[in-house]
Amino acid sequence: MVNSLLAKLTLWSELTPDEESDLARSFGEPRRAAAGDEIVAHGSTPTVSTLVLEGFAARVTLLPEGGRQITALHIPGDFVDLHSLLLTPMDHSVVTLSPCTLTAVPHRRLRALAEAHPRLGRLLWLNTLVDGAIHRQWLAAMGRMAAAGHLAHLLCEQFLRLQAVGLTRDQTFPFPLTQVALADVLGLSSVHVNRTVQELRSDKVVSWTGGEIEILDWERLVRIAEFDPTYLYLRKMPV
Amino acid sequence: MVNSLLAKLTLWSELTPDEESDLARSFGEPRRAAAGDEIVAHGSTPTVSTLVLEGFAARVTLLPEGGRQITALHIPGDFVDLHSLLLTPMDHSVVTLSPCTLTAVPHRRLRALAEAHPRLGRLLWLNTLVDGAIHRQWLAAMGRMAAAGHLAHLLCEQFLRLQAVGLTRDQTFPFPLTQVALADVLGLSSVHVNRTVQELRSDKVVSWTGGEIEILDWERLVRIAEFDPTYLYLRKMPV
DNA sequence: CGACATATTGATCGACTTCAAGTGTAGTGG
DNA sequence: CCACTACACTTGAAGTCGATCAATATGTCG
Fold first, then answer.
1. Per-residue model confidence as pLDDT tens digits over B177-191
2. Distance from CA of A161 to the nearest CA of B (A)
3. Full-model pTM
4. Which of A13, A140, B48, B165 has the greatest count of CB atoms below 10 A from its CB?
5. Nearest to A186 by CA among A137, A141, A132, A131
């Protein structure tokens, strides 16, 4: 049930059978959410942390005057609000971008897990640190790259993250965002996102239809994106 | 010696005398660094985490084609690379922006501290989570605010963060960045930073001379910045 | 003083925004 | 089976914010 989480954690460090079963046992019943649902509210104080089992979700930071910025994209295996264990209230909200299956673990249980299995506790910490590394790369892309490069960078990242949890087929991966949502990720207008997507399409770098993206020319995409995957930390870590 | 760190941690949660003395005892000899020194290299694998005692430092993410983005500003009391305890190698470098006094704590010692004092361990985790919350707010400002608002937002943030560790006098705070460095924070050209600064100056919102900024009209600055300080988490947390 | 980083100003250019309208396409109910 | 709605996507035209290029102060520190 929580296979994609275990896949990701195992990428960082092998789990003992004990750690794995104690962790897997900690989650509640799966629940469904429709696309566009707010699953964690800005300003709230969660008592559980939510894990994505299926579908895409996003962290949304709203500015007082109405600006809307997506600060993280979440895929199966991702905790959307693990930080709410220690950091409250929520500084942003979390919404689904597609129909999702979710499950949750009580904060009390997370604390018990971390106490019983210190290395598992550090793995959870690591999980939030990787979120931070991705935030930093997004900042660099947002601040210093033009639209096409920024978009290409996002696609490279999504491809590798989805691949790590086994959700890609060949060069194809699910990408159920509307262009408006994509604009909120990239900090652009949806009009310009549309034109930028068309640019990548007409250059035969990617094809995007029906919520799926196929990468037609990975080399070129990486070059446009100035992409270096190190910051994703998809490998063993010294936890 | 590590007073500003203790001030910050205490803001989040009272420390027991034991926790406080064990923590304070953990740091090595202070060392000096000149402005512009690289104190942690991109790609390196630190065995200690570095704390700023005096001065300003910045995390710098470089893009392959030469883009340069500052993804965090660090002031006294801040760990510049606490995440390197679990996340290696470094995904960015850290440079000083002014002459600094630094000290460091070995990672081995941090692990021992976290084991002996679980709550202190969670406080360290919390510290990295607040870094993440600031990253998210920077993403929103970068993606959805115009230059003047973005700059104003940064100044509000810096004022409150410095105030929390006792480094402000009235409405004045140290800000030893060059306009080029500021441009790398805001994702702008230094020319445009210059014009934006002049805009805030001629509107009598702030005055900036000799590495110090005085806020002349806090209300207006907050309004320009659409600033809400919640995300800084300068208060008690459930660690 | 010379040298070099930093700040400032002007002029031009271009990437992206905004506004507005039009084109699918899927769902809903008559 | 056809209106009607809703939403995502697309296209065009005009405007603006910020980049770039280039030149001129203004320190400031050996």
1. 999 999 999 999 999
2. 17
3. 0.97
4. A140
5. A141
